[in-house]
Structure formats: C-alpha cells, structure tokens
TrEMBL record:
Lineage: Bacteria, Bacillati, Actinomycetota, Actinomycetes, Micromonosporales
Keywords tagged on the record: DNA-binding, Sigma factor, Transcription, Transcription regulation
Annotated organism of origin: Plantactinospora sonchi
Presence of the UniProt keyword Transcription regulation in the record: yes
Domain RNA polymerase sigma-70 region: 15-76
Protein's name in the database: Sigma-70 family RNA polymerase sigma factor
Family membership: Belongs to the sigma-70 factor family. ECF subfamily.
C-alpha cells in the first residue's frame, strides 16, 4: 500500500484565498491601503521564493505581514523623529456612518500590535494559538493584549 504525500496548496489558491484578508490585516495595522497592498505583495513574492522551505504557508504569510507592518511603522517613527515632515494617514474610504467613525477612531488609538490582535481575533476569527504564531508570542500574551485592547476600545467608545 502506497501512501501519498499531502497535497500542497498551489500559489494561486493561497493567493486567491488570503490576499484580501492579509491586506486588511496590514491596513488595520498601519493605516495605509497602498502601503498595505505593497507589503502583502512583497510577502507573497518572498513566500514564492522560499516556498520549498515553508511548511505552513498561511501561518508564514500572516507572520510575515505582521512583521513587515511593524518594521514599516518603526521606520516611519524614525523618519518623523529625524525631521521627515510627511505624515501617514488612513487612505480614503467611502464615507462612514457615525458608529463606523467612532470605531475607526478608537482603533486608531490602539498601538499597532493591539490593532493586529483585535483584527486577527475578531475580523479573521483566528484562535488564540494562531494569533500567537502570527505575532510570534505566547498565547497568554495574546490574551493579555486582547484584554487590554478591548478595555481601551470600550473606554474610547463610551467617552464618545
């Protein structure tokens, strides 16, 4: 009896299924749709180059997107600190209603890592273990980040 190796998903299938959620993750983290799309494209290109070495492509892609977003944010902070006058803002979206505006404003007050955790948990509906893998931290850290993030969001939304 011959056992076959597990079938690896094709690049096209993974791209089609995960490109949009990864762009949304990047957008929520950094606040720029254009930059989010660029970062996600770069991550997919890197995965394509390293595909033979990557056992879990979706987990790899999530972790890489979060990592690139945090690197991009660190660079922006340094640029601002050292005199770069260009400020990043959220890209233009259709006009939101009052609730959407309040939620976006509350999310913008969270730290990037907190925004990532909230997005991964409540938008992508990922379990704690997968979020921990994406953020390269322990599940307890994810729970703590979620707890603090939700407290900040509740406080911000109650004040508005």
């Amino acid at each position: 009896m011959q056992t076959s190796a597990p079938v690896e998903p094709t690049f096209d299938a993974v791209y089609a299924a995960h490109y949009v959620p990864l762009v949304r993750l990047a957008y929520v983290t950094i606040g720029s749709r254009t930059v989010a799309e660029d970062l996600v494209q770069d991550v997919f290109i890197e995965w394509l180059r390293r595909r033979d070495d990557v056992r879990q492509p979706v987990a790899y892609l999530r972790r890489a997107v979060v990592s690139r977003c945090h690197s991009w944010l660190r660079r922006r902070i340094l640029e601002r600190r050292h005199g770069d006058s260009a400020r990043w803002t959220a890209s233009a979206l259709p006009p939101p209603d009052g609730t959407t505006t309040a939620v976006r404003a509350a999310l913008a007050r969270l730290k990037p890592r907190q925004r990532s955790v909230v997005f991964l948990r409540y938008y992508l509906d990922l379990p704690i273990d997968e979020i921990a893998a994406a953020l390269n931290c322990r599940p307890g850290t994810v729970k703590s980040l979620l707890h603090r993030s939700l407290a900040v969001l509740q406080e911000q939304l109650n004040d508005d």
